[in-house]
Design goal:
The structure holds two protein chains of two kinds.
Chain A lengths: L5 E9 L2 E4 L2 E5 L5 H11 L12 H14 L7 E7 L4 H11 L9 H4 L6 H10 L5 E5 L5 H13 L5 E10 L2 E10 L4 E2 L2 H10 L1
Parallel strand pairs in A: 4-5, 4-6
Antiparallel strand pairs in A: 1-2, 1-7, 1-8, 2-3, 6-7
Chain B lengths: L4 E8 L6 H9 L6 E3 L9 E4 L3 H9 L9 H17 L7 E6 L21 H12 L6 E3 L5 H14 L5 E8 L3 H9 L20 E2 L1 E8 L10 E10 L12 H14 L8 E3 L6 H13 L6 E3 L2 H4 L6 H14 L2 E2 L15 E2 L4 E2 L4 E8 L3 E9 L4
Parallel strand pairs in B: 3-7, 4-5, 4-6, 10-11, 10-15, 11-13
Antiparallel strand pairs in B: 1-8, 1-9, 2-3, 6-8, 9-16, 12-14, 15-16
Helix pairs in contact in B: 2-3, 3-4, 5-10, 7-8
Protein name (chain B): Beta-ketoacyl synthase
GO molecular function (chain B): 3-oxoacyl-[acyl-carrier-protein] synthase activity
Organism (chain B): Pelagihabitans pacificus
């Protein structure tokens, strides 16, 4: 008999608004991403001084994950994120720094963020998670592989919980949708429910 | 418990366009790394392994493509076509496709590149490969730094065990680009000589490019003769630093312990190790600590970076395939570039390619973001 898993909590960061389990926890008139997320960092009392050195994708991922992990004692949590733009937002910055011979200034501090899974490393450091990380890239949000993958990790007892979702940042367009899958929770963990939460949250 | 096997495989590399060419090169202890001075790619000299455009073009033309493909796509298409053909598999809705890459078509961001910049989106790369062969399922693109290749195999296994697919083709590739070279050079990590993993006189890493592919399957009929069973795999983060490896080798150690437990083996059952060995001091030292903590310091071990360089998102897959052939040929491959131990704890680095009966190997990889993966493979018993 296949055990049923549940969605324990979920959050969304999109269109100048941050919500947790459907309720708005932060809203801003700020239309640019970096000042918006900085304001959110302060208002939501996120404690991670390295925040200010991170690239935009990691900032988005850190704020979103902190909402769900802040008060969690369980540390055996696998991380499975996906997006469309991978790290292209930062890739373009690195590319710009090497494009012209006269203005050639590649920086290790930028280059290290030219991998999408770096944001998983930041979440792992912040929350002391020695667990599994995986980063997938799709052309658009896809619930199917995330649900199959999270179910598999839990069923094979690779983790007690899985932090899953969509973490896309591309030229000022940002969209974060994260949720925690666990044995107990508020909704049944299904493709239909994940799609519904993504469409409506 | 159902078993999952790695079967037909291919390597498109500087050695040639099949796995045999790469294995032959390694057996002769020839590297396919070359010193290059190309100011367009990097102001200083560097050393890298590349897939020659002219010969790749010939192999690609034989596939009769109906649209234009990038250099990376050509490498992946040529490799995957050979693996699919050898497997004689029909691409039904039970067959999956996983693509392992860190940067994909990142070279399209260069101003002179003829392809649209949108080709840099990794989902597009997945779609180009899927469309070419007519896979019925959408491609899953995994981009998890330098562990991508091994993790992709592990993920293929899990999707098969939980019934999502019966077979999965895993294809991996990354390019030697201005983007990558300038970045590693900014870290002062690039060597202008062939790299020397674990050696006292190491001078840093080389970047290499390959396109490589393997069939992961649960079916025992029509397996390739070099097939292996994937016994166990695990992946753990260091939770320590995004670009510097853990000083205690934490994530790698935990990955090895978990992979051994899942395989129901102990360290003494591992016949050899295909390690990550990038030839940076920090990486090699971290691995030495993790292997000692795991009780694997006496197990014969190599890094294949001295042959191919670091092939990034393909490396774990490439090195697993070489490991399969190492088992099949009962041969320990020398860790090229190694002479004198240059880490603080003992390791048994293979100095000379040696025949030896071997059954199991451990593959490990570690990467930026603090990620680590370990996988254990066993030869399929002779029929």
């Amino acid at each position: 008999m296949m055990e049923k898993y549940h969605i324990e909590s979920y959050c969304r960061i999109k269109d100048q608004r941050i919500s947790l389990n459907g309720a708005t926890v932060f809203e801003s008139a700020e239309t640019n991403f970096l000042p918006f997320i900085k304001e959110a960092y302060k208002t939501l009392d996120t404690q991670y001084p390295k925040f200010f050195k991170m690239d935009a994708l990691s900032k988005l991922a850190l704020i979103a994950s902190d909402l769900l992990l802040k008060n969690m004692t369980e540390k055996n949590i696998a991380l499975v994120l996906s997006n469309r733009a991978a790290s292209l937002d930062t890739d373009r910055r690195h590319q710009q720094s090497i494009e012209e011979a006269d203005h050639y200034y590649p920086s290790p501090a930028v280059f290290v963020y030219t991998l999408p899974n770096i944001c998983l490393g930041e979440i792992s450091i912040k929350h002391r998670l020695f667990s599994e990380n995986g980063f997938f890239v799709f052309e658009q949000f896809r619930a199917d592989p995330l649900v199959d993958y999270a179910d598999g990790l839990l069923k094979m007892q690779r983790a007690e919980k899985v932090l899953c979702g969509w973490m896309d940042l591309d030229n000022e367009k940002y969209d974060a949708f994260l949720y925690v899958v666990a044995k107990n929770g508020i909704f049944t963990h299904s493709k239909k429910k994940i799609n519904q939460l993504y469409q409506t949250s | 418990m159902n078993k999952v096997y790695l079967s037909y495989n291919n390597i498109v590399s500087g050695y040639g366009f099949d796995t045999a060419a790469a294995v032959e090169g390694i057996k002769k202890e020839d590297a396919c790394l070359r010193q290059i001075h190309d100011k367009h790619l990097l102001p200083n000299h560097y050393c890298a392994s590349k897939v020659a455009s002219e010969t790749l073009e010939e192999a690609y033309a034989q596939l009769r493509p109906k649209e234009a493909h990038t250099h990376l796509e050509k490498m992946l298409l040529v490799s995957l076509e050979k693996t699919i053909r050898a497997s004689q598999l029909e691409l039904t809705d039970r067959v999956g496709l996983i693509i392992s890459t860190t940067k994909g078509n990142i070279d399209v961001l260069e101003p002179e590149n003829p392809f649209p910049k949108s080709r840099a989106y990794l989902g597009q790369l997945g779609e180009k490969i899927r469309h070419f062969f007519g896979f019925q399922n959408e491609a899953l693109v995994l981009s998890n730094a330098c562990v991508s290749g091994v993790l992709a195999i592990a993920i293929a296994k899990r999707f098969i065990l939980q019934g999502t697919y019966d077979e999965v083709f895993v294809v991996g590739g990354d390019l030697v680009t201005k983007f990558i070279l300038s970045g590693f050079n900014a870290f002062q990590a690039l060597s202008d000589e062939p790299c020397r993993p674990y050696d006292k006189n190491r001078s840093g890493i080389n970047i290499g490019e390959v396109g490589t592919s393997v069939l992961v399957t649960k079916k025992t009929t029509h397996l390739a003769e070099e097939s292996v069973v994937l016994l166990g795999e695990a992946s753990c983060n260091d939770a320590n630093h995004i670009s510097g490896p853990s000083r205690t080798g934490e994530g790698l150690y935990r990955s090895i312990v978990a992979a051994l437990a899942q395989s129901e083996l102990n360290a003494g059952n591992i016949d050899c190790i295909s390690a990550h060995g990038t030839a940076t001091l920090f990486n090699d030292e971290m691995e030495a600590i993790a292997f000692n903590r795991s009780g694997l310091q006496n197990t014969p071990m190599n890094s294949l970076k001295g042959y191919f360089g670091h092939t990034l998102g393909a490396s774990g897959l490439l090195e697993t395939i070489i490991g399969m052939h190492s088992l099949h040929q009962n041969t320990l491959f020398a860790s090229k570039g190694f002479q004198e131990l240059g880490v603080s704890e003992p390791l048994n680095i293979i100095k000379k390619t040696t025949p030896k009966p071997i059954e199991t190997f451990l593959k490990t990889a570690s990467g930026f973001g603090g990620c680590n993966t370990a996988a254990i493979f066993k030869k399929v018993a002779e029929k």
